[in-house]
Amino acid sequence: MKRSQDRRRTSKKRSKGLKATLLIAVAALVGLIIWIGTNDWNVEKTLEQAGLSNTDSEKPETSPGSEDKEEEDEQNLPPAEVEPAPPEESTEKGEDDTPFDGGYVEGQQLPSEPTYVKDILIANKKYPLPETFAPGESKEARAAFEEMAAEAKLSSFNLTAFSTYRSYDYQVTLYNRYVDRDGVEAADRYSARPGYSEHQTGLAFDIGEVNHEKHWASSSFGTTEAGKWLLANAHRYGFILRYPNHKEEITGYMHEAWHYRYVGKPIAEQIFKKNITLEEYLGIE
Ligand SMILES: [Zn+2]
Questions:
Q1: Catalytic residue chosen out of the listed positions 209, 248, 256, 279
Q2: Does residue 92 lie within any of the structural domains?
Q3: Quick one: which of 65, 117, 163, 262 could link to 282 by a disulfide (CB 3.0–4.6 Å)?
Q4: How far is the CA of 47 from the centre of ligand 1 (A)?
Q5: 256 and 135 in contact (C-beta within 8 Å)?
Q6: How many CB atoms lie within 10 A of CB 108?
């Protein structure tokens, strides 16, 4: 008899305890719901507030092409007619107030022979090309580009080279147009004077995405998924980003996310891994 009473008492105690636990749980749940409610029913925001979320607050980039489909047919500019946007006022210079001299050697005449350093053809503001130098587009560079474009397609990036070889005469037209529009100083930061353009070597490829013309010859290309893919993979096909960010003092040009130069795989690998410019690699700064 005694035993069964004991048992009953214990089970009563137990059910009391259970009731209390349930009550606390319900109260906690109600509290939680109210709390989430005050955060506009945004669970992620609530978790973030509680320091429980480890989600990156950075929003994922929109998938390539999702935003500029409506512009597709608007401007089918022929190759090499794409004009780079005038450079934004640089906020990075600051340190010294000496005006940017364009990087050219004053009074320099165009040479009669192109310059090769370590068997690499160089064309920059210190090493111009002869007016008569007209090799056309490099077949080797074109083949490498096509191979690269084929692999990019597997990641759904449809790459195109919208400007490659440019003759001396064409550069005359182009440069003069930019000077008329933006003035010499601005034009010198994004366009080469005739004889100084790497496009005259036939080894420079301005790369963009088919149907995404608004990013052609624009720094915005570097922020697209295709631009990032190219930056990470071009060296495997022998291409280097020729004018990287923060290297204007060395290369003579502002950052050009679209301008790639073919140098062949071994050298491209080295330049990429060391994160240097062609000038630094060749030791001709
Ligand atoms: Zn270019």
A1: 256
A2: no
A3: 117
A4: 47
A5: no
A6: 13
Tell whether 148 and 276 lie within a shared domain: yes
Residue 215: which of 231, 227, 204 has the closest Cα?
227
- Could you report the per-residue pLDDT of 221-263, keeping only the tens digit for each? 999 999 999 999 999 999 999 999 999 999 999 999 999 999 9
Q: How far is the centre of ligand 1, averaged over its atoms, from the C-alpha of 258 (Å)?
A: 7
Q: Is the pLDDT of residue 114 over 50?
A: yes
Interval 178-209: pLDDT, tens: 999 999 999 998 889 999 999 999 999 999 99
The answer to whether residue 91 scores a pLDDT higher than 60 is: no
Q: Tell me: pLDDT of 65 over 80.
A: no
Residue 256 bears catalytic tag: yes
* 84 Cα: distance to centroid of ligand 1 (angstroms): 9
| CATH number reported for the structural domain that contains residue 119 in this entry | 3.30.1380.10
